[in-house]
Specification:
Length: about 280
């Protein structure tokens, strides 16, 4: 049920994950990320999504420690970067991330990209399975995985991913991937749900926003939630962090959902996961 900011979806292993969180991609370590995370936690967010490559795990950890919020009320995600693919490398990368975050365990650990050119994501996944079995991570998942990447993991490993975090927004709604994930109990999660702000002046979204007395950003976030997709909009501005969370007091009609769905162009803003090989 999408009732409030702490509302959760239940992953296939029974772990509850908030529908809405704060993403901190491109947020500078130090005061910028500390202030953003603290603001989000004060507003009522309980899910924070970072990654090793973001270079701000330390600041995220500091904000968490200083918030005074009990650890078991928070849902903290980070990701293993491409350079650390491989079994032992992934375990070492996890140790480094958790040390920077100052935590005893993670709520969700993701493989950031499949990096098929290196052919190690199955091996990397087995390291995540070990971390999960050892109780160091409550849930494990992937990011930017296509259907065939997920199929290879499911064919060769013991535990299927609980989450797949992907580029997802009205111009790229990944319907086939979303349907596949739903059919296998894998929770889809949206990164860059606002397309880095490029959708905020779209006339269709603006018209719908005016109808509900909301912003285009709020309409997009609400569309995510009503399509069953966890979402993590990023902002460092306190008023935007609060605005992005103010999406639980209205519901988009099916007609308006259909209008937003019709904006899809199957158009990525970022790299194709089959081609992205940056390490």
């Amino acid at each position: 049920m999408l009732e409030h900011l702490q509302s959760t979806t239940t992953l296939h292993n029974g772990v509850k994950m908030p529908w809405l969180g704060l993403g901190v991609f491109l947020v500078k370590d130090g005061e910028e990320v500390i202030n953003a995370v603290k603001t989000a936690l004060e507003v009522g967010y309980r899910s924070i999504d970072t990654a090793a490559i973001y270079g701000n795990e330390q600041g995220v950890g500091k904000a968490i420690a200083e918030s005074g919020i009990p650890r078991d009320e928070l849902f903290i995600t980070t990701k293993v970067w491409n350079a650390d693919h491989g079994y032992e490398s992934t375990l070492a990368a996890f140790d480094e991330s958790i040390k920077k975050l100052g935590l005893d365990y993670l709520d969700l650990y993701l493989i950031h990209w499949p990096l098929p050119s290196r052919g190690k994501y199955v091996e990397t996944w087995r390291a995540l399975e070990k971390l999960y079995k050892d109780g160091l991570v409550r849930a494990i998942g992937v990011s930017n995985f296509k259907i065939h990447h997920l199929e290879e993991i499911m064919a060769n490993c013991e535990i299927k991913p609980m989450v797949n975090q992907v580029e997802y927004h009205p111009r790229f709604n990944q319907k086939e991937l979303h349907d596949f994930c739903k059919s296998h109990g894998i929770q889809l999660e949206a990164w860059s749900p606002l397309m880095q702000g490029r959708l905020l002046d779209d006339p269709v979204l603006v018209e719908i926003a005016n109808k509900y007395n909301k912003s285009a950003a709020q309409v997009i976030i609400r569309w995510d939630l009503q399509t069953g997709v966890v979402t993590i909009p990023k902002s460092v501005k306190p008023h935007r962090i609060a605005e992005n969370a103010d999406v639980f007091d209205f519901e988009l009609s099916q007609e308006d959902m259909d209008k937003i769905n019709a904006l899809n162009q199957n158009k990525r803003m970022f790299a194709d996961p089959d081609e992205f090989d940056k390490v």
